[in-house]
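Record type: monomer structure entry
Structure origin: computed from sequence
Chain ID: A
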Amino acid sequence: MHSLLDVLPGLRRFAKSLTGSMAEADDLVQMAVERALRQPQALGGVANLGSWMRCVMRNGWLDNRKSAWHRYRVSEESSGDVIGEDGESIVAVRSQLRAVQAAMAALAPELREALVLVAVEGLSYRDAAERLGIPVACLNSRVARARATLAEEVGLLPAKNPKGR
């Protein structure tokens, strides 16, 4: 069993991958450690401390993102304009978001469901495969196809040549 100190370097790397910023990553790690220390009884029953802490961090990060998005939407609705923001970049981001939403809606249901379970809900591939009642290899294939299709649809990958050249 690892101690909290043993898993901190991995937690910082994970937090950095979520946030993209070392300062935000450190804040996220601090939040997760605080939550863990406030619930010492929960730590005693955890088989894999690193995995449990990553789950706490991911949930905290998602909660923070949802809260930030809600605050942004409320301020946008009340003010009409976002002061200090570049209007072109806001339009571009909104346009790309609509393109992703449309591409997600156009995915085959089994691809969309696999991608949502892994990428949105944060389930492990094993847990998502169990929930869908399919082998993990099948889930891997569905998620990979869904990601490739989305990337192609929103212009992150060139369209496949229909003649196979």
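Annotation 1: The longest helix spans residues 49-79.
Annotation 2: The chain has eight helices and no strands.
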